[in-house]
Fold:
Amino acid sequence: MNIKEIKNKIYAILDIPEFSDESALMAMLDGAARKIAVYTRCIKKSAKLTFEAEHGAFFAKLPADFAVFGYIRRGARIWGRAQFEILGGKIKSSAIAGECELCYFAYPPAVCAETPEETELFADSYACDTAAYGAAMELCQSLYPADVQRYIRIATEYDERMANMISAAGSAASVANNFFSGMRGAFI
Structure:
């Protein structure tokens, strides 16, 4: 689902032909999409990292769309989150140098009033639908300040969609967290 389709969904949810403040609409959509990406971990990516020595440790620059750590792999060896520290756009290691692969969960592309309407936020249409409900929920307060029933209906729909996505992500995460927990250390 692209931005134009999501905006049309927002208009349908709010029962309006269009929204006059494009910047506010896109800010709400961007916030909802980023929240969905962090909580549901629905965008999985990998990137090459190069750890270089700096001040007695090794640092690598994180990808610009980095949201949540997954694991780091070099060959057959895999390291979990416990072996690293995230510091302002970089990842720090006390023992790993050189090239590795970072598997992580990413933010969707940032959206603003100038973002092309053909931009795809998520591959998953359910996530796009959830983003539409999240943005509509925020906009509903300014459009219908006295219509509490409408707000509650939209907020409930959004909450249910988020709960469905989070429980699906949580099931997979609990398996991964058991496998890569801090007590287990590095998987070889």
User: Anything to note?
Assistant: Strands lie at 44-54, 57-61, 66-74, 77-79, 84-87, 90-93, 98-106. The radius of gyration is 20 Å.
